[in-house]
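Is this the right way to post structure tokens for a design question? Let me know if I should format differently. Anyway, here goes:
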């Protein structure tokens, strides 16, 4: 958007002015990373809870999922882009580690949880049961 003799550029989602120097860019990025949390959708389908989350650019080796009673932990390690850039004019993608702790609304069967990663979408299917009492790491297929 042009205002008078100066030009100001804003990001689409936050309406923040983009950094014009490397120092300003590092400050902006650290402020953004403090607010990051892996977005999820959590729903029920029949006797299963379904969690879906976009995890683009990651492989199954980059993701870990753990469930402990009524809490599910999802963690994605860093997936850096190749090469260092001098200046980013728009930087909306997050390439560092990101995680999420999900308090499950119902008890689930940790032995039968399934997770798949397809087309950048991680889908976790959690069978609902009457009670649960242990921790289990889920393997992604």
């Amino acid at each position: 958007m042009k205002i008078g003799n100066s030009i100001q550029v804003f990001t689409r989602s936050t309406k923040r002015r983009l950094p014009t120097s490397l120092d300003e860019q590092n400050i902006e990025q650290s402020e953004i990373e403090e607010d990051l949390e892996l977005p999820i959708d959590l729903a029920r389908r029949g006797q299963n809870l379904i969690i879906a989350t976009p995890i683009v650019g990651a492989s199954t080796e980059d993701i870990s999922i753990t469930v402990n009673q009524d809490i599910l932990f999802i963690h994605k390690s860093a997936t850096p882009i190749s090469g260092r850039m001098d200046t980013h004019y728009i930087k909306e993608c997050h390439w560092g580690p990101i995680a999420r702790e999900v308090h499950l609304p119902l008890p689930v069967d940790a032995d039968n949880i399934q997770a798949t990663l397809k087309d950048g979408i991680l889908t976790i299917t959690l069978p609902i049961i009457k009670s649960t009492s242990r921790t289990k790491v889920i393997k992604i297929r």
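Format looks fine. Someone answered above. Worth noting: The helical segments are 22-34. Strands lie at 2-3, 6-7, 41-45, 48-54, 63-68, 71-76, 98-103, 114-118, 121-127, 135-138.
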